[in-house]
Design goal:
Layout: E1 6-9, H1 27-40, E2 44-47, E3 49-50, E4 56-57, H2 60-73, E5 77-80, H3 90-94, E6 103-107, E7 111-113, E8 116-118, H4 122-135, E9 138-143, H5 147-157, E10 166-171, H6 181-189, E11 196-201, H7 205-216, E12 219-222, E13 229-231, E14 234-235, H8 239-252, H9 260-267
Parallel strand pairs: 1-2, 1-12, 2-5, 5-6, 6-9, 9-10, 10-11, 11-12
Antiparallel strand pairs: 3-4, 7-8, 13-14
């Protein structure tokens, strides 16, 4: 079994400082949070960014500054979000890919997202996939529903995505895959041969699903984007605190945690 890869989703696009006082907003705050998460055991940071007013943005200059500040401080893999906030036009969602990050998210289907709809029509998905391939960016296949795996395989057949695939099962969003162990087991059993995967449990689903993923040989995403509580009613102090808990659990279960260098080899970001 490979070492555990932990992704820290530091910011998100929906969370507000009123909900989470420790939310990193500025490029320096995000970079410092990334460095702290790395020290706690994360090897990937999943990046959303905010403008000077704290609003979610896909502005390439903000992404450039954030990534630059992160690289000054740590060696983590920077994985940008091409999801943006719900309703962001596809052209804006794609723009930060021009920075040629090591990884970026590729959501392979539309999903009801609480009271909103996160639209990912086939032409938009193919547009993002083609752009990632052109720029040499490794896609993380974000699945909010089981059928999104099939959509990813169609991209492979069209030559838009190369195997082996790296899946992220986002579980617990109202309208998407429920955040249950049974649903995670089904997703893991439905993977194509040779695929790698991680789980991003939303809210109360985060810890339980993370522990199951560790045992099953999958990887784990945690952080403020997915869950702001350390325990019932108790806000987490930092993204690093959430990362450290998963790293500790994994080691206690006999599975070591990957460094960024090791994660690059596992995922295939290095030759």
């Amino acid at each position: 079994m490979d070492k555990l890869i932990i992704t820290a989703a530091l910011v998100g696009a929906e969370l507000t400082p009123e909900q989470m006082p420790h939310l990193p907003i500025s490029p320096i705050q995000i970079a410092e949070a990334a460095a702290e998460a790395r020290e706690a055991g994360a090897s990937i940071v999943h990046l959303h960014v905010r403008d000077t007013e704290g609003r979610p943005t896909q502005d390439i200059d903000v992404f450039r500054e954030v990534i630059s500040e992160i690289k000054k401080r740590t060696d983590v893999i920077c994985q940008i979000s091409t999801g943006g906030a719900v309703g962001t036009p596809i052209e804006l969602r794609a723009k930060p890919l021009d920075l040629q990050p090591e990884m970026a998210t590729l959501t392979t289907g539309t999903v009801n997202f609480g009271d909103e709809v996160f639209m990912n029509e086939p032409p938009s998905i193919e547009f993002l996939a083609a752009r990632m391939k052109q720029l040499g960016v490794k896609p993380e296949i974000e699945c909010f529903d089981v059928g999104h795996m099939s959509n990813a395989l169609r991209l492979v057949k069209k030559g838009l995505v190369d195997e082996p695939l790296y899946f992220d099962f986002v579980m617990g969003v109202p309208g998407g895959i429920p955040g249950t162990v049974q649903d995670l087991m089904h997703c893991a059993a439905s993977l194509p041969a040779g695929a790698q995967w991680q789980v991003a449990g939303i809210g109360r689903a985060e810890l339980q699903l993370a522990a199951v993923a560790v045992v099953l040989g999958g990887n784990v995403r945690v952080g403020f984007e997915d869950n702001i509580y350390y325990s019932r009613g108790v806000l987490a102090e930092s993204n690093a605190q959430l990362v450290a808990r998963i790293a500790r659990i994994s080691r206690e279960l006999g599975r070591e945690v990957a460094t960024p260098t090791e994660a690059r080899k596992i995922i295939g970001l290095t030759t």
